[in-house]
Automatic annotation (TrEMBL), chain A:
Entry's EC annotation: 7.1.1.-
Catalytic activity: a quinone + NADH + 5 H(+)(in) = a quinol + NAD(+) + 4 H(+)(out)
The protein, known as: NADH-quinone oxidoreductase subunit K
Organism: Dysgonomonas macrotermitis
PANTHER family according to UniProt: NADH-UBIQUINONE OXIDOREDUCTASE CHAIN 4L, NADH-UBIQUINONE OXIDOREDUCTASE SUBUNIT ND4L
Annotated Gene Ontology cellular component terms: NADH dehydrogenase complex; plasma membrane
From TrEMBL, chain B:
Task of the protein: NDH-1 shuttles electrons from NADH, via FMN and iron-sulfur (Fe-S) centers, to quinones in the respiratory chain. Couples the redox reaction to proton translocation (for every two electrons transferred, four hydrogen ions are translocated across the cytoplasmic membrane), and thus conserves the redox energy in a proton gradient.
EC code(s) of this entry: 7.1.1.-
GO cellular component entries: plasma membrane
A molecular-function term among this protein's GO annotations: quinone binding
Keyword Membrane: yes
Transmembrane segments: 6-23, 30-47, 53-75, 87-109, 139-160
Keyword annotations: Cell membrane, Membrane, NAD, Quinone, Transmembrane, Transmembrane helix
Cited Gene3D superfamilies: NADH-ubiquinone/plastoquinone oxidoreductase chain 6, subunit NuoJ
Descriptive protein name: NADH-quinone oxidoreductase subunit J
């Protein structure tokens, strides 16, 4: 199965990643629930990771896969801190609707 | 054969991603997202990136999604917590996401890249052994800094979500 890029072609992987990224963008713009927006950010990160892995296979270099591993660690840290902030917001305001967070508005 | 599997997996990825974004109940979104991440792990497996595939399942579906689901259960969120957006802003969001699709796909389709023909090398470059070798020799310092980052994130998460004393 090591010749998958010969059969599928790197173009299709690029299109798939772009579409998945756009799905994440749609979620970011369309929803008001903060937790779903966090999930959309995860989708965008996963799309970028997948493209990195594809190009790692294309160039036959393991460095990009190591970079993907680091970016997964960053994603895990981001989700942990983001959820902690969400819990704090929910405790103070009682909802996680993004439109309620306008205390700093002048 | 491989091409058909690729298209099926890609369809599953995109469909579950869309369902994640569009489903009303956040718990359903989280479960569709687990499906999406499993299909991305399947893509990694098809590319023969074994270590990445297993790490993706462990980190994303094992850790991140459990954290998200646990938070959802803790806050007891359901549909009525999210009021409907105004129609105008929904239309604006959809139109701008579609414009993003057009922009990215147009750029990639119209570009004439100089992709030389890919041919699989006989050398082993992505087995677990090689990846471990690369991490622990070439990228040892970033690897250690990752652990510092994780500890900082853990301490920050505990500090932020700790209940403050009403003093």
């Amino acid at each position: 199965m090591h010749d998958i890029l010969e059969q599928v072609g790197i173009n299709n992987y690029i299109y798939l990643s772009a579409l998945l990224f756009c799905v994440g963008v749609l979620g970011m713009l369309y929803r008001r629930s903060t937790i779903v927006m966090l999930m959309s950010v995860e989708l965008m990160l996963a799309a970028a990771n997948m493209l990195l892995a594809v190009f790692s296979v294309y160039h036959q270099d393991a460095s990009a896969q190591v970079f993907v591993i680091f970016s997964m660690a960053v994603a895990a840290a981001e989700v942990a801190v983001g959820l902690a902030i969400l819990v704090a917001i929910f405790r103070n305001i009682g909802s996680i609707d993004i439109d309620n967070l306008k205390n700093l508005k002048g | 054969m491989i091409t058909i599997i690729f298209y099926i997996l890609a369809a599953i990825t995109l469909a579950s991603g869309l369902l994640t974004v569009l489903s009303k109940n956040p718990v359903h979104s989280a479960i569709y997202m687990i499906v999406c991440f499993f299909s991305i792990a399947g893509h990694f497996l098809m590319l023969n990136a074994q270590f990445l595939s297993v790490i993706h399942i462990i980190v994303y579906t094992g850790a991140i999604m459990i954290l998200l689901l646990f938070t959802l259960m803790l806050m007891n969120l359901n549909e009525q917590h999210e009021p409907v957006k105004k129609v105008a802003s929904r239309i604006a969001a959809t139109v701008s996401a579609c414009l993003m699709v057009v922009l990215l796909l147009g750029a990639f389709l119209k570009a004439t890249p100089t992709i030389e023909a890919y041919k699989a090398a006989e050398i082993d470059f992505q087995s677990v052994k090689v990846i471990g070798d690369v991490i622990l020799n070439e990228y040892l310092v970033p690897f250690e800094f990752t652990s510092v980052l994780l500890i900082a994130a853990m301490i920050g998460a505990v500090l932020v979500s700790k209940r403050e004393n009403k003093a």
